[in-house]
Fold:
Amino acid sequence: DKSAYAAAKIVTSQLGGEDTLRMVAAAFGLYQPGMEKAAMLRCIENFVVTNMRAHKRSLLIIDEAQNMSIGALEELRMLSNFDDYFSWFVTALVLVTGLAATAHIGAAYETLLGVHVLSFDLLLVWFPFGKLMHAFYLVPSRAINGALLARKGAIS
Structure:
């Protein structure tokens, strides 16, 4: 459904970091000859944010991604959005506040326990909307797909 997704595909994985960014920008129709790296990053970011505001997902498919160079992977990592970092923050917050409450570090135990419970509540509110939900859906989706395709294991 083109109204829900803006999809692009890259089939060349043997590129350096900046060349990979050029390929991403070109795949989404954003690249202009002579464009600087900062301008490419800004264009890609604006494209993704504009799509998010329009309730569209930006999907980048990279064929043979396992063969990409470290530099190319680092450039793609820089394209991560708020969801990636906020999910890590919320998960770590629950862990840190729980450890602080258990070790009685910082404030009264009741205060630390209250902060821990509130941080867990924040995680529960964020969970269905963030990428953390993918970890939850992994096993059920594999089971459903396996049942639908009538596969009972690996095909040799």
